[in-house]
């Protein structure tokens, strides 16, 4: 799960975006998105040489994969040059906020669901239906496309999918002879049973699991199982305090019963690289994760890791599962070459060569054709994740809406209050009321 | 008596050495970690090396899109430009504030002090808009040109204080001998201001070398990144960051700052002692 240390600075900059963007409109004589327009209204491809920019975050293997994909695109479109700009996750949003405010946003941007609503509301990213002539999204299913929608319009094309589940260290389970329930689902009681067995059979040397409690994806799933959700489609907080209190109480009971590391151990282990995580070092046998199992597998090469679905309540209604997009492509609403930008996004999301190049590095591909394409080459953890995503796809209901404007601190705040609950500074119920009040206030302030 | 003095001096030094070791520990740990294989970095708080993984240096140097030398060179270009700009412009502005009489001088001086208190978040967007209109984005110009316009209030203030410490009689003597402002500034003030100029140069060096945010914002293409921005490229969002390479290149990036401080320390003390302490 990502943490957002710079989010305060970022939100301050983001607030300035609106004001500054307005002033730039005046300065630049309102040249918004009229580049390449023609009489029939839609944007047109230019025949002259055109340069567009592509912004993304990441490191390691993603660098070469992106460069190679762009080279293929340039080969297929000889008059388009693509300039690549990349930074790490933290710097990416600081920089994007400034460049958008400065009226100089990159044409194509890699995006996270956390920011789709705020940039869409401010008109910084384009409604992609305008470019449907160049950008074909028909290969994506309705539920997948819905993860990139805000206010009923498609602003972001999903690249990869993930869904929260439970990573299990089979090596440890086999060592202590602990059995997992068979089948494609398990309940919260099953999870407790397995966790307790592991802790008891290993004499406490290995704890059962790292509990949830500080991340909105697991909270959202928990709430959906009980017919509630965190945000509704209009971006209002609709979570009931009793729901959040129950979610925390479940995890708190696990901590108190000793099947997880202690509260202080959890707090200490919260930072650092994956190879230092409790799962990778063998301190716990299970952990909740957003299906990035491969990253853990790389961090713990000697352990045999597996993935189980998110446990469910016995009375949970079908369709509580949902797919999340790991990331998206968006197009700047102020792009001077929107048609070319749309062509690039189309190429990156539908060209089979790109599918091969990207593999599962940006998340399990959202495009089913890409999934089929890379399936034969997948092995180990990637294969497990693909099967899991397929299972969730078949079970999933309407996806949770993107984080509403002003809701960017939802995770940070949840985590802070969860710490207070863990250390007994407040009760789950009081903290839940506080969380909902605070979140509502922040969202109201951003409106 | 003498013995007691010696004992107290030993005690004082021990205390200082212990404190400086505590302060130095993170840096030393970084140096030690840069020589450890990747998986052993975070579970090892000690400074003693049982392995010697110099490979972090060779790997880290080539791990990003460009060899790391490119980023160091970019940083060097920005730093040299910034130092030249600050020395020329701030000394001129300081001379004006300290010696000339002009309208709205107090107001201008006050405004200059206020600029020192503005946080970068307030300045960055207007600056970005201006530089974007000028077409300077993705060049080093936004990082260098403003320095030639005396925008670093701190250095102006430092030099004003320094010049105020120089007796006015010297100026007057020169004036009687027929020297104009240009001559007084170039031939008298500048040589006398050496300690202040050295301080400004060293601070500009360290601050610009370590600066991250403005370099991140104004430079967009990876081959123009400075070393501080490039270091962040080692951080991988999927949690598989190359920390060995990151630490190794951090050490490499620290060397110039360390050298600048080592050789500049003498001037730094003199420059501050003769201006700030008044």
In short:
The complex is a heterodimer of chains A (447) and B (278). Chain A has 447 residues and is α/β, with parallel strands linked by helices.
From the structure above, extract its key features:
heterodimer, A: 447 residues, alpha/beta, 6-stranded mixed beta sheet, 4-stranded mixed beta sheet, 12 strands, B: 278 residues, mainly alpha, MetI-like fold, 13 helices, 71% helix, 0% strand
Describe this structure in words.
The complex is a heterodimer of chains A (447) and B (278). Helix content of chain A is 45%, strand content 13%. Chain A is α/β, with parallel strands linked by helices and 447 residues long. Chain A is globular, with a radius of gyration of 23 Å. Chain A starts with 6 loop residues before the first helix and ends with a helix. Chain B is an all-alpha fold and 278 residues long. Chain B has 13 helices and no strands. Chain B has helices at residues 2-33, 55-62, 68-99, 105-117, 120-134, 141-144, 153-164, 168-176, 181-192, 194-210, 213-218, 227-232, 243-273. The longest helix of chain B is centred in the N-terminal third of the chain and has 32 residues, at 2-33. Chain B starts with a helix and ends in a 5-residue tail after the last helix. The chains are: A alpha/beta (447), B mainly alpha (278).
Number of helices of chain A: 17
Q: Say what oligomer this is.
A: heterodimer
Coarse morphology of chain B: flat
Tell me the CATH superfamily of chain B: MetI-like
The end-to-end distance of chain B, rounded to whole angstroms, is 36 Å
Quote the distance from N terminus to C terminus of chain A.
27 Å
Report the count of strand segments of chain A.
12
Strand content of chain A: 5-15%
Helix and strand run of chain B: HHHHHHHHHHHHH
Using only C-alpha atoms, the radius of gyration of chain B works out to 23 Å
The name of the CATH topology of chain B is MetI-like fold
């Amino acid at each position: 799960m990502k943490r957002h240390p710079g989010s305060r600075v970022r939100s301050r900059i983001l607030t300035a975006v609106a004001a500054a963007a307005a002033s730039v409109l005046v300065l630049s004589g309102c040249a918004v998105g009229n580049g390449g327009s023609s009489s029939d209204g839609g944007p047109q491809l230019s025949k002259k040489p055109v340069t567009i920019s592509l912004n993304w975050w990441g490191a390691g293997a993603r660098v070469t994969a992106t460069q190679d994909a762009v080279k293929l695109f340039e080969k297929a479109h000889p008059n388009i040059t693509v300039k690549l700009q990349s930074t790490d996750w933290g710097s990416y949003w600081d920089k994007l906020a400034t460049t958008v405010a400065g009226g100089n946003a990159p044409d194509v941007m890699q995006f996270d669901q956390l920011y789709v609503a705020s940039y869409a509301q401010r008109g910084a990213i384009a409604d992609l239906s305008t470019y449907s002539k160049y950008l074909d999204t028909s290969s994506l299913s309705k539920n997948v496309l819905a993860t990139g929608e805000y206010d009923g319009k498609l602003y972001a094309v999903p690249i990869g999918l993930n869904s929260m589940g439970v990573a299990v260290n089979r090596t440890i389970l086999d060592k202590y002879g602990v059995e997992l329930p068979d089948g494609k689902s398990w309940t919260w009681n099953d999870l407790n049973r397995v966790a307790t067995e592991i802790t008891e059979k290993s004499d406490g040397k290995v704890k059962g699991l790292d509990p949830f409690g500080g991340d909105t994806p697991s909270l959202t799933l928990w709430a959906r199982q009980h017919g509630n959700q965190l945000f509704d489609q209009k971006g209002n907080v609709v979570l009931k305090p009793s729901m959040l209190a129950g979610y925390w109480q479940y995890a708190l009971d696990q901590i108190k019963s000793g099947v997880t590391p202690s509260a202080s151990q959890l707090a200490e282990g919260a930072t650092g690289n994956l190879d230092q995580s409790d799962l990778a070092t063998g301190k716990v046998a299970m952990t909740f994760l957003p299906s990035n199992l491969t990253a853990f597998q790389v961090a713990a090469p000697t352990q045999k890791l597996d993935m189980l679905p998110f446990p469910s309540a016995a009375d949970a209604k079908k369709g509580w599962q949902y797919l999340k997009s790991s990331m998206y492509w968006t197009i700047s609403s102020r792009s001077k070459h929107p048609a070319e930008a749309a062509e690039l996004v189309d190429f990156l999301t539908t060209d089979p060569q790109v599918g091969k190049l990207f593999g599962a590095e940006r998340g399990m591909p959202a495009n089913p054709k890409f999934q089929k394409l890379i399936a034969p080459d997948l092995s180990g953890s990637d294969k497990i994740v693909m099967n899991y995503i397929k299972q969730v796809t078949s079970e999933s209901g309407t996806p949770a809406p993107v984080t509403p404007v002003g809701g960017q601190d939802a995770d940070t705040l949840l985590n802070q209050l969860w710490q207070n609950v863990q250390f007994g500074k407040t009760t789950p119920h009081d903290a839940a009321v506080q969380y909902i009040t605070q979140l509502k206030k922040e969202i109201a302030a951003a409106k | 008596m003498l013995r007691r003095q010696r004992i107290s001096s030993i005690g004082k030094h021990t205390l200082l050495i212990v404190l400086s070791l505590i302060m130095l520990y993170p840096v030393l740990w970084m140096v030690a970690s840069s020589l450890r294989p990747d998986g052993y970095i975070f579970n090892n708080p000690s400074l003693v090396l049982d392995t010697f993984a110099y490979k972090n240096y060779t790997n880290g140097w080539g791990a990003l899109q460009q060899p790391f030398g490119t980023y160091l060179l970019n940083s060097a270009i920005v730093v040299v430009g910034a130092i030249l700009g600050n020395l020329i412009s701030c000394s001129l502005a300081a001379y004006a504030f300290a010696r000339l009489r002009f309208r709205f001088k107090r107001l201008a001086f006050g405004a200059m002090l206020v600029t020192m208190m503005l946080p970068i978040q307030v300045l960055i967007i207007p600056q970005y808009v201006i530089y974007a209109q000028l077409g300077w984005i993705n060049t080093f110009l936004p990082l260098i040109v403003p320095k030639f316009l005396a925008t670093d209030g701190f250095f102006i203030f430092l030099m004003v204080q320094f010049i105020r410490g120089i007796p006015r009689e010297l100026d007057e003597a020169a004036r009687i001998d027929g020297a104009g402002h240009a001559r007084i500034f170039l031939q008298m003030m500048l040589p006398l201001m050496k300690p202040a100029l050295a301080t400004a140069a060293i601070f500009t060096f360290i601050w610009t070398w370590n600066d991250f945010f403005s370099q991140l914002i104004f430079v967009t293409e990876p081959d123009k990144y400075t070393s501080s921005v490039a270091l962040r490229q080692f951080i991988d969002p999927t949690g598989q960051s190359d920390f060995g390479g990151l630490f190794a290149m951090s050490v490499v990036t620290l060397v110039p700052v360390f050298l600048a401080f080592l050789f500049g320390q003498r001037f730094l003390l003199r420059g501050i002692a003769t201006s700030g302490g008044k």
